[in-house]
Amino acid sequence: MLAHYLQLGLRSLRRNPMLTALMVMAIGFGVAASMITWSVFRVVSGNPIPDKSEALYTALIDNRGPQYNNAGNEPPEALDYDEAVALIRARKAAHQTLFYNIGLSVMPEGSHDLPLNASGYATNTDFFNMFEVPFQYGGAWTAADDDARAAVAIISSDLNNKLFGGANSVGREVTFDQHTYRIIGVTGHWDPKPRYFDVFAGMTYAEPPDVYIPFTRAIDLKIDTSGRNNCGGAPVHIESAEAWLHRQCAWIPVWVELSTKADAQRYLDFLTAYAAEQQRAGHFNWPPNVRLRSVMNWLDFEHVVPPESRISLFVSVGFFVICMVNTIGLLLAKFMRRSAEIGVRRALGATRREVYEQFLMEAATVGLAGGMLGLILTAIGMQGVSLLFEPEIARLAHLDFSLLVMAIGVAVLAALIAAFYPSWRAAQVQPAWQLKSN
């Protein structure tokens, strides 16, 4: 019977092409507007590491004083070198990492080739396990490499393609800023969005990193940070790189992995005790002011989701609702114009349920056609996302299989919902009245 109702529905759509076109367009435009904004919102508001987001925390300590803090006496969003290294050396978490942004010049093997620019991180070995970095070849360096300040490096698959044509480059050497490193790993595609661990440096939606070297090695070579460096107050003259290294500037994020809430509370107690010890030693002259935020709490605190993405999503959903109201009116007009047909069917023995099924199937056909139109409009609209969002966010919007299925499903479901009242009205037609009047 469903196949029969589908056939009847298709015949009915061809009977009133103008009315059908209006309904298909209403659904198509509503679906397209919603899917375009949703494609952006789902990326910027999603959980970038769902299986560990409740176990990863960023540790913050007020190392500059309340006069430089943000509203609510919030401490800086990163640590200075001394505090960051001290927390790592304390080993109060099973896994812990620190890092800072670096920009390096890469010298290809061919002497005729020009140097390449590569961005990445100076970090430690725990970084890769904590943040679930996949490897195409090789793996992470060891803790012994960190302690030995080893000249080792991990590169991305993209950089590996540029330098070595995508071959297994583990064991080969590469030159960064005139220093030679031995490649011990090549990462697979890894581009969490938003990049939760590096919000401080403004890399939330940046391109994937190209290179990783040991933090200790980068400090030995005095490699400057290419990210944010927040020293508070007016700029001052720094006599040497060593003096700058120990200045109370926020530039090194520290993240720890804590499996349970009890572990998190113990680590927070440790942070408070550490800050109190620094106050007694005269390093700080203000009460302990520390924070320990999990991934999603950190993203909420940093307002990572752009406000324009929420506003545009609400506006598009409102537009979709208006389209559905119009579709209800069009379906009601279409169904009630067929009162005579309905009366004859009821007189011949059709039940109200069968009338419901016929008209709901017809509405589903309209929804399917509207969904197909919506997909075409969505693909076209993706080209204009940059008009609403920053380029680094706009490039994240794309039409994938999940969005395709969602668009079709939403269109069909919306059409069915819109058809409930018109179908109910159509099913209430009295056969006797229609037979007498027609």
UniProtKB/TrEMBL annotation:
The chain crosses the membrane at residues 21-41, 311-333, 359-381, 401-421. GO terms for cellular component: plasma membrane. It is a multi-pass membrane protein. Pfam families: FtsX (PF02687), MacB_PCD (PF12704). Residues 314-431 form the ABC3 transporter permease C-terminal domain. Keywords: Cell membrane, Membrane, Transmembrane, Transmembrane helix. Residues 20-218 form the MacB-like periplasmic core domain. It comes from the Bacteria. GO terms for molecular function: transmembrane transporter activity. It is found in: Cell membrane. PANTHER family: ABC-TYPE MACROLIDE FAMILY EXPORT SYSTEM PERMEASE COMPONENT 2, MEMBRANE COMPONENT OF TRANSPORTER-RELATED. This is FtsX-like permease family protein. It comes from Dyella choica.
